[in-house]
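Tutorial sheet, problem 5. The two components below are modelled jointly, 322 residues in total.
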Amino acid sequence: MEPGGTGKALSQLRRGVLEFCVLALLRDGEGYGVELVRKLGAIEALATSEGTIYPLLSRLRRQGLVTTVWRESPAGPPRRYYDLTPAGHHALGGFSQEWAAFRTAVDLLMGED
Amino acid sequence: MELFEDYLRRLEVAVRHLPPVQRRELVAEIRDHLYTSLAEEERPGPAELRNILERVGDPQEIAEAALIPPATSRPGGELEEEGPDSDSGLLTLSLLLFGGFLCAIGWLVGVALLWSSRRWTVAEKALGTALVPGGLLTPFLATILPDRCTTVIDAGGMISEEQCGRFTYIPWLDIVAISALWVAPILAAFLIFWRAKRRHGNFTQATVS
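Model answer (C-alpha coordinates):
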Protein backbone atom coordinates (compact mmCIF):
# COMPACT_ATOMS: atom_id res chain seq x y z
CA MET A 1 0.00 0.00 0.00
CA GLU A 2 1.36 3.41 -0.89
CA PRO A 3 1.79 6.14 1.67
CA GLY A 4 -1.54 7.81 2.29
CA GLY A 5 -3.26 4.66 1.04
CA THR A 6 -5.43 4.37 4.10
CA GLY A 7 -6.59 7.98 3.78
CA LYS A 8 -7.81 7.37 0.28
CA ALA A 9 -9.55 4.11 1.15
CA LEU A 10 -11.33 5.73 4.06
CA SER A 11 -12.52 8.67 2.03
CA GLN A 12 -13.88 6.33 -0.63
CA LEU A 13 -15.60 4.28 2.02
CA ARG A 14 -17.16 7.39 3.52
CA ARG A 15 -18.35 8.52 0.12
CA GLY A 16 -19.98 5.21 -0.64
CA VAL A 17 -21.77 5.05 2.67
CA LEU A 18 -22.83 8.68 3.06
CA GLU A 19 -25.98 8.50 1.00
CA PHE A 20 -27.21 5.58 3.07
CA CYS A 21 -26.52 7.60 6.19
CA VAL A 22 -28.77 10.28 4.75
CA LEU A 23 -31.47 7.73 4.01
CA ALA A 24 -31.10 6.28 7.49
CA LEU A 25 -31.77 9.65 9.11
CA LEU A 26 -35.11 9.69 7.32
CA ARG A 27 -36.05 6.15 8.28
CA ASP A 28 -38.46 7.18 10.99
CA GLY A 29 -40.12 10.00 9.15
CA GLU A 30 -39.54 13.21 7.28
CA GLY A 31 -36.69 15.51 8.12
CA TYR A 32 -36.14 19.23 7.80
CA GLY A 33 -33.42 19.83 5.21
CA VAL A 34 -31.30 22.31 7.11
CA GLU A 35 -31.38 20.15 10.21
CA LEU A 36 -30.49 17.04 8.22
CA VAL A 37 -27.33 18.54 6.78
CA ARG A 38 -26.42 20.02 10.12
CA LYS A 39 -26.64 16.64 11.87
CA LEU A 40 -24.52 14.90 9.27
CA GLY A 41 -22.02 17.72 9.07
CA ALA A 42 -21.54 17.57 12.82
CA ILE A 43 -20.46 13.94 12.84
CA GLU A 44 -16.66 14.06 12.89
CA ALA A 45 -16.17 10.55 11.64
CA LEU A 46 -18.13 11.26 8.47
CA ALA A 47 -15.78 14.12 7.64
CA THR A 48 -18.31 15.87 5.45
CA SER A 49 -19.36 19.51 5.35
CA GLU A 50 -22.99 20.62 5.27
CA GLY A 51 -22.73 21.92 1.74
CA THR A 52 -21.64 18.61 0.28
CA ILE A 53 -24.82 16.94 1.42
CA TYR A 54 -27.09 19.11 -0.73
CA PRO A 55 -25.88 17.65 -4.04
CA LEU A 56 -26.36 14.24 -2.50
CA LEU A 57 -29.93 15.03 -1.53
CA SER A 58 -30.57 16.31 -5.05
CA ARG A 59 -29.35 13.11 -6.53
CA LEU A 60 -31.37 10.97 -4.16
CA ARG A 61 -34.38 12.99 -5.23
CA ARG A 62 -33.62 12.48 -8.91
CA GLN A 63 -33.22 8.78 -8.32
CA GLY A 64 -36.62 8.64 -6.68
CA LEU A 65 -35.30 7.58 -3.28
CA VAL A 66 -36.49 10.69 -1.46
CA THR A 67 -39.18 13.27 -2.03
CA THR A 68 -39.38 16.80 -0.72
CA VAL A 69 -42.22 19.06 0.36
CA TRP A 70 -42.26 22.66 1.40
CA ARG A 71 -44.07 23.40 4.62
CA GLU A 72 -45.08 26.70 6.12
CA SER A 73 -43.03 27.59 9.13
CA PRO A 74 -44.52 29.57 12.02
CA ALA A 75 -41.51 31.80 12.37
CA GLY A 76 -39.89 32.42 9.04
CA PRO A 77 -39.85 31.35 5.39
CA PRO A 78 -41.24 27.97 4.22
CA ARG A 79 -39.05 25.00 5.05
CA ARG A 80 -38.05 22.10 2.89
CA TYR A 81 -38.69 18.64 4.30
CA TYR A 82 -37.33 15.37 2.95
CA ASP A 83 -38.94 11.97 3.18
CA LEU A 84 -38.10 8.46 2.02
CA THR A 85 -40.01 6.92 -0.85
CA PRO A 86 -40.80 3.19 -0.85
CA ALA A 87 -37.79 2.77 -3.13
CA GLY A 88 -35.73 4.67 -0.60
CA HIS A 89 -36.86 2.40 2.22
CA HIS A 90 -36.02 -0.57 0.05
CA ALA A 91 -32.54 0.70 -0.77
CA LEU A 92 -31.88 1.47 2.87
CA GLY A 93 -33.05 -1.98 3.94
CA GLY A 94 -30.79 -3.64 1.40
CA PHE A 95 -27.80 -1.63 2.47
CA SER A 96 -28.49 -2.25 6.15
CA GLN A 97 -28.15 -5.97 5.72
CA GLU A 98 -25.04 -5.74 3.56
CA TRP A 99 -23.46 -3.32 5.94
CA ALA A 100 -24.10 -5.50 8.97
CA ALA A 101 -22.33 -8.44 7.35
CA PHE A 102 -19.50 -6.23 6.09
CA ARG A 103 -19.01 -4.53 9.42
CA THR A 104 -18.97 -7.82 11.31
CA ALA A 105 -16.40 -9.29 8.97
CA VAL A 106 -14.09 -6.28 9.08
CA ASP A 107 -14.43 -5.95 12.86
CA LEU A 108 -13.49 -9.57 13.23
CA LEU A 109 -10.40 -9.20 11.07
CA MET A 110 -9.38 -5.95 12.71
CA GLY A 111 -9.81 -7.53 16.12
CA GLU A 112 -7.36 -10.35 15.44
CA ASP A 113 -3.92 -9.55 16.74
CA MET B 1 -24.86 39.72 3.54
CA GLU B 2 -21.77 40.52 1.58
CA LEU B 3 -19.88 37.62 3.08
CA PHE B 4 -22.57 35.20 1.95
CA GLU B 5 -22.81 36.71 -1.51
CA ASP B 6 -19.04 36.48 -1.89
CA TYR B 7 -19.17 32.86 -0.94
CA LEU B 8 -22.04 32.18 -3.32
CA ARG B 9 -20.07 33.79 -6.13
CA ARG B 10 -17.17 31.46 -5.43
CA LEU B 11 -19.60 28.56 -5.38
CA GLU B 12 -21.01 29.56 -8.77
CA VAL B 13 -17.51 29.47 -10.20
CA ALA B 14 -16.74 26.11 -8.63
CA VAL B 15 -19.89 24.49 -10.04
CA ARG B 16 -19.82 26.04 -13.49
CA HIS B 17 -19.18 22.66 -15.10
CA LEU B 18 -22.40 21.16 -13.82
CA PRO B 19 -25.44 20.92 -16.05
CA PRO B 20 -27.34 24.23 -15.86
CA VAL B 21 -30.41 22.95 -14.03
CA GLN B 22 -28.41 21.22 -11.34
CA ARG B 23 -26.07 24.15 -11.01
CA ARG B 24 -28.91 26.62 -10.43
CA GLU B 25 -30.65 24.30 -8.03
CA LEU B 26 -27.56 23.68 -5.93
CA VAL B 27 -26.63 27.35 -5.63
CA ALA B 28 -30.23 28.19 -4.73
CA GLU B 29 -30.29 25.51 -2.06
CA ILE B 30 -27.03 26.66 -0.50
CA ARG B 31 -28.19 30.27 -0.61
CA ASP B 32 -31.40 29.23 1.10
CA HIS B 33 -29.43 27.30 3.70
CA LEU B 34 -27.14 30.23 4.47
CA TYR B 35 -29.89 32.76 5.01
CA THR B 36 -32.16 30.35 6.84
CA SER B 37 -29.35 29.38 9.19
CA LEU B 38 -28.65 33.02 9.84
CA ALA B 39 -32.29 33.70 10.59
CA GLU B 40 -32.28 30.89 13.13
CA GLU B 41 -29.34 32.29 15.03
CA GLU B 42 -30.34 33.95 18.26
CA ARG B 43 -27.70 36.61 18.02
CA PRO B 44 -26.65 37.03 14.42
CA GLY B 45 -23.31 38.70 14.00
CA PRO B 46 -20.13 38.50 11.95
CA ALA B 47 -18.88 35.52 13.95
CA GLU B 48 -22.08 33.60 13.24
CA LEU B 49 -21.75 34.37 9.54
CA ARG B 50 -18.30 32.85 9.47
CA ASN B 51 -19.36 29.84 11.52
CA ILE B 52 -22.20 29.13 9.14
CA LEU B 53 -19.92 29.39 6.13
CA GLU B 54 -17.34 27.16 7.73
CA ARG B 55 -19.89 24.47 8.45
CA VAL B 56 -21.21 24.63 4.90
CA GLY B 57 -17.71 23.99 3.66
CA ASP B 58 -15.44 24.68 0.74
CA PRO B 59 -17.17 25.42 -2.58
CA GLN B 60 -14.73 23.20 -4.41
CA GLU B 61 -15.61 20.24 -2.22
CA ILE B 62 -19.29 20.88 -2.80
CA ALA B 63 -18.69 20.93 -6.54
CA GLU B 64 -16.84 17.64 -6.34
CA ALA B 65 -19.61 16.09 -4.26
CA ALA B 66 -22.00 16.89 -7.09
CA LEU B 67 -19.89 14.89 -9.49
CA ILE B 68 -19.55 11.69 -7.52
CA PRO B 69 -21.36 8.81 -9.17
CA PRO B 70 -24.18 7.46 -7.05
CA ALA B 71 -23.70 4.30 -5.00
CA THR B 72 -27.40 3.54 -5.30
CA SER B 73 -27.59 3.43 -9.06
CA ARG B 74 -27.92 0.49 -11.37
CA PRO B 75 -25.43 -2.33 -10.94
CA GLY B 76 -22.12 -1.47 -12.49
CA GLY B 77 -22.37 2.00 -10.98
CA GLU B 78 -23.22 3.76 -14.22
CA LEU B 79 -23.19 7.50 -14.12
CA GLU B 80 -26.65 8.96 -14.25
CA GLU B 81 -27.55 12.40 -15.52
CA GLU B 82 -24.30 13.93 -14.39
CA GLY B 83 -22.31 11.81 -16.76
CA PRO B 84 -22.14 12.81 -20.35
CA ASP B 85 -22.92 10.17 -22.87
CA SER B 86 -20.04 10.49 -25.25
CA ASP B 87 -21.54 8.12 -27.75
CA SER B 88 -24.70 10.09 -28.31
CA GLY B 89 -22.70 13.28 -28.64
CA LEU B 90 -20.94 11.93 -31.70
CA LEU B 91 -24.12 10.42 -33.03
CA THR B 92 -25.96 13.72 -32.73
CA LEU B 93 -23.26 15.62 -34.55
CA SER B 94 -23.02 13.02 -37.29
CA LEU B 95 -26.75 13.23 -37.84
CA LEU B 96 -26.59 16.99 -37.97
CA LEU B 97 -23.94 16.85 -40.65
CA PHE B 98 -24.95 13.87 -42.72
CA GLY B 99 -28.50 13.15 -41.63
CA GLY B 100 -29.83 15.35 -44.36
CA PHE B 101 -28.82 12.69 -46.84
CA LEU B 102 -31.16 10.26 -45.12
CA CYS B 103 -34.15 11.92 -46.71
CA ALA B 104 -33.66 14.99 -44.53
CA ILE B 105 -35.26 13.16 -41.59
CA GLY B 106 -31.81 12.28 -40.30
CA TRP B 107 -31.01 15.97 -39.85
CA LEU B 108 -34.26 16.55 -37.99
CA VAL B 109 -33.46 13.63 -35.68
CA GLY B 110 -30.05 15.18 -35.12
CA VAL B 111 -31.66 18.47 -34.17
CA ALA B 112 -34.02 16.70 -31.76
CA LEU B 113 -31.11 14.88 -30.12
CA LEU B 114 -29.13 18.10 -29.95
CA TRP B 115 -31.78 20.06 -28.12
CA SER B 116 -32.78 17.26 -25.77
CA SER B 117 -29.24 16.62 -24.60
CA ARG B 118 -27.73 18.28 -21.55
CA ARG B 119 -24.34 18.09 -23.09
CA TRP B 120 -24.46 21.47 -24.80
CA THR B 121 -25.37 25.00 -23.85
CA VAL B 122 -28.28 26.77 -25.52
CA ALA B 123 -25.87 28.90 -27.53
CA GLU B 124 -24.13 25.81 -28.84
CA LYS B 125 -27.44 24.19 -29.70
CA ALA B 126 -28.55 27.30 -31.59
CA LEU B 127 -25.27 27.32 -33.48
CA GLY B 128 -25.60 23.70 -34.39
CA THR B 129 -29.11 24.22 -35.71
CA ALA B 130 -28.53 27.44 -37.63
CA LEU B 131 -25.26 26.42 -39.28
CA VAL B 132 -26.51 25.00 -41.48
CA PRO B 133 -30.09 23.80 -41.66
CA GLY B 134 -29.98 20.52 -43.49
CA GLY B 135 -26.35 19.96 -42.54
CA LEU B 136 -24.04 19.07 -45.38
CA LEU B 137 -27.00 18.23 -47.57
CA THR B 138 -27.54 21.92 -48.20
CA PRO B 139 -24.12 22.74 -49.67
CA PHE B 140 -24.25 19.45 -51.50
CA LEU B 141 -27.50 20.40 -53.20
CA ALA B 142 -26.18 23.86 -53.84
CA THR B 143 -23.14 22.37 -55.52
CA ILE B 144 -24.94 19.90 -57.75
CA LEU B 145 -27.74 22.19 -58.71
CA PRO B 146 -27.18 23.70 -62.10
CA ASP B 147 -26.48 27.35 -62.38
CA ARG B 148 -29.34 29.65 -62.87
CA CYS B 149 -28.73 31.88 -65.73
CA THR B 150 -30.13 35.10 -66.83
CA THR B 151 -29.58 36.85 -70.03
CA VAL B 152 -28.76 40.45 -70.22
CA ILE B 153 -30.25 42.29 -73.09
CA ASP B 154 -28.81 45.60 -74.09
CA ALA B 155 -30.55 48.68 -75.32
CA GLY B 156 -30.55 47.52 -78.87
CA GLY B 157 -32.45 44.31 -78.05
CA MET B 158 -29.41 42.18 -78.59
CA ILE B 159 -28.29 39.57 -76.12
CA SER B 160 -25.07 40.96 -74.76
CA GLU B 161 -24.20 38.29 -72.28
CA GLU B 162 -25.44 35.48 -70.18
CA GLN B 163 -24.82 35.51 -66.52
CA CYS B 164 -24.91 32.34 -64.50
CA GLY B 165 -24.49 31.39 -60.93
CA ARG B 166 -25.94 29.43 -58.04
CA PHE B 167 -27.00 32.23 -55.78
CA THR B 168 -25.73 35.34 -57.35
CA TYR B 169 -24.53 36.23 -60.77
CA ILE B 170 -21.23 37.36 -59.51
CA PRO B 171 -18.94 34.35 -59.93
CA TRP B 172 -16.56 34.94 -57.06
CA LEU B 173 -19.38 35.69 -54.65
CA ASP B 174 -21.04 32.50 -55.71
CA ILE B 175 -17.93 30.47 -54.95
CA VAL B 176 -17.57 32.15 -51.58
CA ALA B 177 -21.20 31.43 -50.74
CA ILE B 178 -21.00 27.77 -51.64
CA SER B 179 -17.68 27.30 -49.82
CA ALA B 180 -19.17 28.94 -46.78
CA LEU B 181 -22.09 26.56 -46.92
CA TRP B 182 -19.69 23.63 -46.91
CA VAL B 183 -17.41 24.96 -44.24
CA ALA B 184 -19.99 26.34 -41.83
CA PRO B 185 -21.64 23.09 -40.71
CA ILE B 186 -18.31 21.33 -40.35
CA LEU B 187 -16.86 24.19 -38.36
CA ALA B 188 -19.97 24.45 -36.20
CA ALA B 189 -19.95 20.71 -35.46
CA PHE B 190 -16.28 20.76 -34.52
CA LEU B 191 -16.72 23.80 -32.38
CA ILE B 192 -19.55 22.46 -30.28
CA PHE B 193 -17.95 19.02 -30.06
CA TRP B 194 -14.67 20.46 -28.88
CA ARG B 195 -16.26 22.82 -26.36
CA ALA B 196 -18.36 20.03 -24.86
CA LYS B 197 -15.37 17.73 -24.73
CA ARG B 198 -13.32 20.32 -22.95
CA ARG B 199 -16.15 20.89 -20.49
CA HIS B 200 -16.92 17.27 -19.79
CA GLY B 201 -13.26 16.33 -19.63
CA ASN B 202 -13.40 17.97 -16.21
CA PHE B 203 -16.08 15.53 -15.08
CA THR B 204 -13.88 12.50 -15.49
CA GLN B 205 -10.91 14.23 -13.91
CA ALA B 206 -12.84 15.28 -10.85
CA THR B 207 -14.30 11.85 -10.17
CA VAL B 208 -10.87 10.32 -9.83
CA SER B 209 -10.22 10.66 -6.13
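Marking note: The longest strand of chain A covers residues 76-84. Full credit if you identified this.
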